[in-house]
Specification:
Length: 270
């Protein structure tokens, strides 16, 4: 990997890993210039850059082995802290993403098609069956029942571009006050409630949910709370399967506790 990057950059650049799960991101430094490099980023990155949602895309290069290397501008700044997620800028950026026809058109041209909640439900149910998790964990069985009960509430909604991995580590504030949302590997076309549900559950006290939704600009929507919890349960089940598949039992048990907590909360709304 490093050899290919060094060829792409030319002489004089110092490469250091940028962290992350994939190990395919690097920081390149030369004199006073810094770039963020990643292998095989989605072509979606170009329109995200044009929309000002991610740091500026500097260049894209296809390597001899077929890999595509992207270089983005390195901005001095910081990741958001959990308490920053309440800020108006976060709500405004998410609103911009969800209402962008350019992002939606590009994602569909890349072959990302909207999935109905019925298709998603069938998929997670089959995965849980294949992994024998429904009989193994009572919380999983209950959560699947809740997904089935709430499924009608999720149908026939407007689907938009969603980031699908909203956490404070993926939001960067540059020193000039600009806000960027990075790590778009899980981007999909879905109910926007699947995105802002992650922010509300993860960062906003329950009594302040309505206030944050007003900042975002959400209009009165039928079954909004039920839809958010449906996607939160789905997200927790998907991560449980993911961690078990990676043989990460401690992380998997954390997700199981999340599922138990969500089950208790859903009980109060159905």
């Amino acid at each position: 990997m490093l050899e290919w990057l060094e060829r792409a950059l030319g002489d004089g650049w110092k490469l250091t890993p940028a962290g992350g799960l994939t190990g395919e991101a690097f920081i390149a430094e030369k004199e006073n210039k810094r770039l963020f490099l990643k292998r095989n980023s989605s072509p979606f990155l170009a329109v995200l850059s044009a929309e000002g949602i991610v740091p500026k895309l500097v260049w894209t290069r296809r390597m001899e082995n077929g890999d595509v290397i992207t270089a983005q501008e390195w901005l001095e700044g910081r990741e958001l802290k959990p308490n920053d997620m309440k800020d108006q800028k976060v709500a405004d950026l998410l609103h911009k993403i969800h209402h962008s026809t350019e992002l939606l058109d590009m994602l569909m041209r890349l072959g990302i098609n909207p999935l109905t909640s019925d298709e998603i439900f069938a998929s997670i149910k089959q995965t849980l069956i294949d992994m024998n998790l429904i009989h193994k964990y009572e919380a999983v069985r209950i959560s699947l029942e809740y997904l089935d009960i709430l499924l009608p509430k999720t149908r026939n909604k407007k689907l938009v571009v969603c980031h699908s991995d909203l956490n404070h580590n993926n939001l960067l504030m540059s020193n000039d006050g600009s806000l960027f949302l990075i790590d778009w590997d899980n981007a999909t076309i879905a109910d926007p409630a699947s995105d802002y549900g992650l922010i509300l559950k993860g960062y906003i006290p329950r009594e302040d949910w309505n206030g944050w939704l007003e900042k975002y600009g959400v209009e009165e929507e039928e079954n909004l709370l039920e839809r958010m919890y449906w996607y939160l349960l789905l997200n927790a089940l998907q991560y449980l399967c993911w961690h078990l598949g990676r043989k990460e039992p401690i992380k998997a048990m954390e997700r199981l506790r999340d599922i138990e907590e969500l089950n208790e909360q859903v009980t109060s709304i159905i």
